[in-house]
Design goal:
The structure holds two protein chains of two kinds. Chain A has 14 helices and four strands. Chain A is mainly α. The relative contact order of chain B is 0.11. Chain B folds into three domains: 237 residues, Rossmann fold (3-Layer(aba) Sandwich); 175 residues, P-loop containing nucleotide triphosphate hydrolases (Rossmann fold, 3-Layer(aba) Sandwich), CATH 3.40.50.300; 72 residues, no CATH class. The chains are: A mainly alpha, B alpha/beta. The complex binds adenosine-5'-triphosphate (ATP) and magnesium ion (MG).
């Protein structure tokens, strides 16, 4: 728009997420050389589809981590919301209504997390470990431990295509754009950073700190519901065990994307890059036919490596 | 002429977009108290951080006891006998006083176990010397006031038995009385041959304790003078690069009419303060002073709805006000600049722009999308108005010098245009020239009809600015004095706990 563009490339490179972006590009180039399938449209969309649930939840998780909290219940919430989708579709409600109810349930669960963190003053780690168990237990209770069929056109959100593009990828793109705008252009987004930087100063500046915290957990709840609907839709069924361990992938994406676990710093753009890196890494192992066990080790190494490089860089620049 | 202990030569330090120091030199003798002065952002802290191994210079040499040295880490400087008290407090809040004092070098008893008793004993001695004998060394840092934390920070540096102690604005959060304890300690250090590098914006302190004064301006070395043969005026003009003659003067008003902007009746929070009454009128500056720990900050924070909601009545322009949280009071036109900029003021990782616009954005009802163009315009206006030294509004605030961070917090509240402004130690860490500008700004605000409640431990500041002065002691208003005739002595008398005087 205005004349501030010249420095933009330099600025981008100085950003925390720059090293991850470079790693992502290098990996993509290498993969496209090593495997003829990588750049095939089908593969690209399938990678994007696989990361969509993780990326969507990572947007919420990032907001929570920026306020200085953490949410370990995202995987279980995803599972429970999938199950609820199945249950509500058996009531023969219109899909729009099912969608709204499930999202509402997500907001509710997230808000409970937020209320416990703020009003009861329990550390987020404990609250959300509790919620992780509660949500998983509820899913198993409701389903009796067996996957149940989802019979509703709501499955389109997860399994449908718009032309060649999976619908879930469109949803992910939408959430990404909204997330970026929310964090960088809106007052509640700004307040998320303020709370994470210095909650006392935020309070004294007129920010309602508790509300901000409850809000980020509620948003994450809603996004877990969305992810649950998508995962359910891809399989046409709700597995009570779905989303197990996803919390670690989500947190890894957030941290890879340059968000500091101590709060106050990070961007949604970075988190999306982090999620993409995880997705492409996974894809690499499939395409190159390397052991899935090695893949787990590699992802661990990448996470530690990225954070280490980053911490090294900040140590250098502050001297 | 005593022997030179440390000499810095041709020091250059560059940060992205800022040349903080350019060919700076400094020479300090054994047992010398050497003051370092300059405007906010002149490079004082940066130079000391280089000496103490926190930063590495881009160019230049450090000669210590005659040999050229490098300190890659603060630890190396410490081991060589150079201790530094940083401008921003750096104690661990969740540890006790004695643990902070001995962190990294726990005392061991003859069985090789940590000797807690000895550390507590030694800590008590240090606290005693600083006039805090009543404080239990096992108290957590987070339970201490800002000034007590500062004193612990000093105790820690002194306990290291260093040859050089660097003190970066140690007195900015201390009261006069606490500062005097510090000066006695500095005398003692000097007698033992320890050199002290002392940074302060208070000229009276510099002239009462230093032997030499080095002036920096805009990252450049200006001159080093013997304290005995120079004077305040000369130093200030060297600092700002022009002569700054007249002292700030404010005409006091005695009579105020109409409804008070802010009136509090019988305000109490058990254990913090009780039965506080005062009236603040439009156009008035009401001074509130007293020893640290008298409950001043607690009082204003609770009026402001920040914590411990008080019993009693708060009236705003004659109407009872229900203040349950800060948002309520901001909505009612109150503003509070808190003490302790690191803990209660700045958002470290956010830009100067975001720091300044924080409150004004909260104020607009229904604000959702931020109008970036307007935000930038407002912020840039205040950066100019308060002459905040920054490469631009997008610089992270943590990279600004201490005084410039303080100016940014001032800007945050001025921008939100409150009708009632509570300032808690607003000129904390601000240089002489900028102080006068801020006083002028306060005067301008009162002319616009704003009422200011000014909390300050600096008696000259309180006396220069206030129309009326309230003196608090142990949670009570001990008395009030008219602003046009009050003297430091009268205020000191009233701030002593136990003494009481009926209202004039
Ligand atoms: N880590 C940093 N990164 C970028 N700029 C910095 C950094 N530290 C200091 N600066 C800049 O260097 C200049 C000198 O800062 P310094 O903190 O030394 O000032 P000072 O003389 O101590 O001021 P004050 O009286 O306000 O404490 C300032 O313009 C400041 O913005
Ligand atoms: Mg400084």
């Amino acid at each position: 728009m205005d004349q501030k563009n010249p420095g933009i490339l330099k600025k981008l490179l100085a950003r925390r997420e720059a090293s991850v972006l470079i790693a992502l590009i290098v990996l993509c180039v290498a993969l496209s050389l090593m495997s003829p399938y990588f750049l095939k449209q089908r593969n690209i969309f399938s990678v994007l589809r696989q990361i969509s649930a993780i990326a969507i939840m990572a947007v919420g998780q990032a907001l929570i981590i920026i306020t200085g909290g953490i949410d370990l219940s995202v995987g279980s919430m995803l599972g429970l919301m999938g199950v609820l989708t199945a249950v509500f579709s058996t009531w023969h409600l219109p899909p729009v209504l099912v969608f709204l109810i499930v999202i509402f349930c997500g907001i509710l669960m997230g808000s409970i997390n937020g209320l416990l963190v703020t009003k009861v003053n329990i550390t987020p780690f404990i609250v959300t470990i509790g919620m992780m168990n509660i949500a998983r237990g509820l899913s198993l209770l409701i389903t009796g431990g067996m996957p149940i069929h989802i019979d509703s056109s709501i499955n389109f959100l997860g399994g449908g295509y718009l032309g060649p593009i999976p619908f879930s990828v469109i949803i992910m793109a939408l959430i990404a754009v909204l997330g970026i705008l929310f964090a960088s252009r809106t007052l509640p987004g700004r307040n998320v950073y303020a709370v994470g930087n210095n909650d006392r100063a935020a309070e004294l500046s007129g920010v309602r700190v508790h509300r901000v915290k409850i809000m980020v957990y509620a948003i994450t709840g809603a996004l877990c519901a969305l992810a649950g609907i998508i995962i359910g839709g891809t399989l046409n069924s709700a597995d009570p065990n779905s989303g197990k361990g996803y919390e670690m992938d989500v947190i890894a994406a957030v941290i890879l994307g340059g968000t500091s676990l101590s709060g106050g710093e990070g961007t949604i753009q970075g988190v999306l890059i982090g999620a993409a890196l995880m997705g492409v890494l996974r894809n690499a192992f499939v395409l190159l036919g390397i052991s899935a066990y090695l893949q787990i080790v590699t992802i661990g190494v990448v996470i530690i490596g990225a954070v280490a490089i980053d911490s090294f860089k900040t140590m250098q620049s502050s001297r | 002429m005593s022997e030179t202990v440390i000499e810095l030569k041709g020091i250059k330090k560059e940060f992205p977009g800022v040349l903080a120091l350019d060919k700076v030199q400094l020479k300090v003798g054994k047992g010398e108290v050497h003051a370092l002065v300059g405007e906010n952002g002149a490079g004082k802290s940066t130079l000391m951080n280089i000496l103490s191994g926190t930063y590495q210079p881009n160019e230049g040499e450090i000669l210590y006891k005659g040999a050229s040295v490098r300190f890659p880490e603060p630890r190396d400087a410490q081991d060589a006998g150079i201790a530094m008290i940083h401008q921003e407090l750096s104690l661990s809040p969740s540890l006790s006083i004695y643990e902070n004092i001995f962190v990294g070098r726990l005392l061991k008893n003859r069985f090789g176990l940590t000797d807690i008793a000895a550390m507590i004993r030694d800590s008590s001695v240090f606290l005693e010397e600083l006039g805090m004998g009543t404080l239990d060394p096992k108290t957590l840092i987070s339970d201490l006031s800002v000034s007590q934390q500062q004193l612990v920070e000093i105790a820690k540096a002194v306990s290291l038995n260093s040859d050089i102690i660097i003190m970066d604005e140690p007195t900015s959060s201390l009261t006069r009385k606490e500062s005097l304890y510090l000066f006695k300690i500095i005398e003692g250090l000097k007698a033992k041959g320890v050199s002290v590098l002392f940074i302060s914006h208070r000229m009276d302190e510099i002239f009462s304790i230093s032997d030499k004064i080095t002036v920096l301006r805009d990252g450049r070395y200006i001159d080093t003078l013997d304290t005995g043969i120079t004077n305040e005026k000369e130093i200030v003009s060297l600092m700002v690069g022009r002569s700054l003659d007249k002292q700030f003067h404010r005409e006091k008003k005695k009579e105020f009419s109409g409804n008070p902007l802010l009136e509090v009746k019988d305000l109490s929070v058990p254990g913090l303060f009780e039965n506080v009454n005062f009236k603040l009128y439009s156009g008035m500056i009401l001074g509130l002073t007293g020893l640290v720990g008298a409950g001043r900050s607690e009082l204003v924070q609770s009026i402001f709805g920040a914590d411990n909601l008080p019993d009693g009545e708060i009236l705003i322009q004659g109407d009872p006000a229900q203040i349950k949280n800060v948002k309520d009071s901001v909505g009612l036109g109150l503003g509070l600049i808190p003490e302790g900029r690191k803990t209660q003021g700045i958002f470290r990782e956010m830009s100067v722009r975001e720091n300044i616009s924080m409150t004004v954005l909260q104020k607009e009802p229904g604000q959702f999308l931020i109008d970036r163009a307007r935000e930038s315009e407002d912020v840039e206006e205040y950066i100019r108005k308060l002459r905040i030294k920054t490469p631009g509004p997008e610089q992270k605030i943590k990279f600004l010098s201490g005084g410039n961070q303080q100016k940014a917090i001032l800007a945050r509240w001025l921008l939100s245009s409150p009708r009632i402004l509570i300032l808690d130690e607003p000129t904390h860490g601000i240089d002489v020239g900028a102080k006068a500008e801020i006083y002028q700004l306060m005067e301008d605000l009162t002319r616009e009809g704003i009422g200011i409640l000014l909390i300050s431990s600096e008696l000259p500041e309180i006396i220069t600015m206030s129309d009326e002065i309230l003196v608090m002691s142990e949670g009570r208003i001990n008395g009030s004095l008219p602003g046009d005739s009050a003297s430091q002595d009268e205020i000191m008398q009233l701030s002593i706990p136990g003494k009481e005087r009926s209202k004039a």
